[in-house]
Specification:
Blueprint: E1 7-13, E2 20-26, H1 53-62, H2 71-82, H3 102-108, H4 123-140, H5 148-158, H6 160-166, H7 173-185, H8 202-211, H9 233-242, H10 252-255, E3 272-275, E4 287-293, E5 296-299, E6 308-311, E7 317-321, H11 325-330
Antiparallel strand pairs: 1-2, 3-4, 3-7, 4-5, 5-6
Helix pairs in contact: 1-2, 1-4, 4-5, 5-6, 5-7, 8-9
Length: 335
């Protein structure tokens, strides 16, 4: 679906007992600044709460181990592999937060915390080992033409020999998709260093949500006919963006990773806004709404309530995401 380059601007108007936000489609689509080419040169900081606080220092430190990686890229790998779950185990017997298979761990696992053992289930060992393994792969393919980070990721997926053989990322669809996925997803974990481009889908997403005002809340609701067209919070945001061809994950804490994170003062209509009782960990996000301007969002708040306008400036406000098509596509289906 094509969305015309329009902004939706929201203004607050008074009521007898409540303040509401009226939506107007006005003006022309304006282009804001870039994210300084995404993940560029220099130190890369992590977005607020994108990495659980327990692992943030580790990811920031070890993500700077070599020039082919950065903290946001390392975070993206860990998120895709396990969703930052140190107890994760896959059907292929990959283990821990970094999902090492036993043979790879035996060769490349390191004692990251210096306690005398190498424990794949301990993030203090597994996160440093993931960074170390990335850097080893980068060294294997350092003479191959092209982007060193892309070549490292390709070697992670297809093996160093394939990168050397083809002089860069090999012509394997799976490998090319893997490289694109991780390099896109890293933008969700990087702290922006400039203004973030507005979303072209934002106006229509808000229009969709506006049409649902007054609809009763339903836990687990996706708006289907058998559910009476009812939604919960993340069901509403998913459906709103799906109406413009962008597929988001089902749950709010994964929707947070669908794009870069504008600061509160940089919010634009269409941004997703998130709420949590733990402001240091995006995995604990429990609520999401669609920002409409003027300090308000449209959201499906809770059982017994209806889809409505609510203020966003509450103590549990976590942050925001400017949804991008590529960012949404890069998210793993399960973490």
């Amino acid at each position: 679906m094509t969305v015309r380059k329009a902004w939706i601007v929201a203004i607050a108007v008074g009521g007898a007992a409540l303040s509401f936000v009226m939506l107007l489609v006005v003006g022309v689509y304006m282009v804001a600044g870039n994210l300084a080419n995404g993940i560029g040169a220099g130190a890369v900081g992590l977005a607020k709460g994108a990495v659980p606080a327990a692992y943030q220092t580790l990811v920031q430190r070890w993500g700077n181990l070599c020039g082919a990686i950065n903290p946001a890229l390392l975070a993206a790998q860990l998120y895709q592999e396990s969703g930052f779950n140190p107890s994760a185990k896959s059907p292929a017997k990959a283990e821990g937060i970094a999902q090492f298979i036993p043979g790879t761990w035996a060769t490349h696992g390191i004692d990251g915390d210096g306690d005398g053992d190498r424990d794949v289930w301990d993030p203090n060992d597994a996160i440093p080992s993931a960074a170390s393994y990335d850097c080893e792969l980068a060294k294997y393919v350092e003479d191959a033409p092209g982007n060193p980070t892309h070549n490292m990721l390709a070697a992670y997926n297809a093996g160093a020999y394939a990168v050397i053989k083809y002089g860069g990322v090999p012509p394997y669809k799976e490998t090319q998709n893997y490289v694109k996925t991780i390099t896109t997803l890293q933008q969700s974990f990087a702290r922006p260093v400039g203004r973030v481009d507005p979303s072209r889908q934002a106006a229509a997403a808000i229009t969709y949500a506006q049409k649902k005002l007054g609809t009763p809340y339903l836990w687990g609701g996706n708006g289907t006919a058998d559910q009476g067209g009812r939604f919960d919070c993340s069901g509403l945001t998913k459906a709103a963006y799906e109406s413009v061809g962008v597929t988001l994950p089902r749950v709010a804490n994964d929707q947070y990773n669908a794009g870069p994170h504008p600061a509160r003062e940089e919010l634009l209509p269409g941004d997703l806004v998130f709420f949590s009782d733990d402001l240091t960990n995006s995995r604990t996000i429990r609520h999401v709404g669609i920002y409409v301007g003027g300090g308000y969002m449209i959201d499906a708040p809770r059982t017994g309530a209806v889809i409505r306008f609510d203020p966003i400036d509450t103590p549990d406000y976590f942050g925001a995401t400017r949804v991008t098509e590529d960012g949404a596509k890069a998210l793993p289906t399960t973490v």
